[in-house]
Design brief:
It is a single chain. By secondary structure, the chain is an all-alpha fold. It is built from 12 helices and no strands. The radius of gyration is 20 Å and the shape is globular. Bound molecules: fe (ii) ion (2 copies). The site of one fe (ii) ion (FE2) has 5 residues, from α4 and α6.
């Protein structure tokens, strides 16, 4: 492949939505190693055996999910770079370092606070379907097939389902569990500080995913069938991940959370993004860009 020229020499960087996400990523940079887990460690020691188990269960889904998205992102970055989308690639460089920090944060949380290993026992069938099969398959397909269909399937799997439904529902569980434990006098300041940072990073990731899918749909409205099919195909597995964690505790979830609330929350996240993408197929590229900037996604 011979290069045709350089955007930076020709016209300079465009102040597009992805470039704004890139600037936000630099502004909100944080260091997992700077988080103090002293209080959390003492708090964890006070939990009942069931509460310890449930906390580790939740953390194990996150730490492996973050490992998966770190390992599986690169083929998408390569596709975007090959298409010469400089501003998008600049943003994606921060995206990958964010995911590496999320791995680091949850790894620290598990090793410093709970001091546990061997957590794969918490990965149920639905979790395995998404993180062991569907995600690596959809992302690695891009290595040989950079078509809009393959990109759309990858972005639905990664950004809409894994980040948009599962991660978002997981943060909600952390906040609700922390509230319940606080009533018991148990405080988790380091955990909550880290989860807040992770969630802010993820809001940019999801915003990029919506932008990417909206751009693809705007350029190829017939891709909607692919997007819709993939969303509906993965939804039962995503809801299954949420249900499995509750089903593992038939006596009642020890962190005082109810399954119905979280299934509804997960469905709400799904529907919100589904509606947004449904609109994008009737928008032109300028509208996609304008709407992304106006709704100030990734702001959280
Ligand atoms: Fe992440
Ligand atoms: Fe992410």
């Amino acid at each position: 492949m011979v290069r045709e020229g350089f955007k930076t020499a020709r016209e300079g960087l465009q102040d597009s939505f992805p470039l704004q996400l890139y600037h936000k990523a630099k502004k909100y940079f944080w260091d997992p190693q700077a988080i103090d887990f002293t209080v959390d460690k003492a708090s964890f020691a006070q939990l009942t055996p069931g509460q310890k188990q449930a906390s580790l269960h939740l953390a194990s889904l996150f730490v492996s999910g973050e490992e998966a998205v770190t390992l599986d992102l690169l083929p998408l970055v390569q596709v975007i770079a090959r298409e010469g989308r400089l501003e998008e690639e600049m943003y994606l460089t921060t995206f990958l370092v964010d995911e590496a920090k999320h791995v680091e944060f949850f790894n620290l949380l598990i090793r410093e606070v709970a001091q546990e290993d061997n957590l794969e026992r918490f990965h149920g069938d639905n979790y395995k379907r998404i993180f062991y099969e569907e995600l690596p398959k959809a992302m690695n397909r891009l290595l040989d097939d950079p078509s809009p269909e393959a990109q759309a399937e990858a972005a639905v799997t990664y950004n809409m389902i894994v980040e948009g439904v599962l991660a978002e529902t997981g943060y909600y569980a952390y906040y609700r569990a922390a509230e319940a434990l606080k009533e018991q006098g148990v405080k988790l300041p380091g955990t909550l500080e880290g989860v807040r940072h992770v969630q802010r990073d993820e809001s940019r990731h999801i915003a990029y995913g919506i932008y990417l899918l909206s751009r693809l749909l705007s350029e190829n409205p017939s891709l909607w069938d692919t997007v819709e099919r993939r969303m509906n195909y993965l939804l039962p597995y995503a809801l299954g991940v949420v249900q499995d964690i509750f089903r593992a505790y038939p006596e009642g979830f020890p962190l005082k959370l109810e399954m119905g609330e979280f299934v509804n929350y997960a469905m709400g996240q799904f529907q919100k993004r589904y509606r947004r993408l449904d609109l994008a197929r009737n928008q032109n590229l300028q509208e996609v860009e304008r709407i992304a900037l106006e709704t100030a996604e990734g702001e959280a």
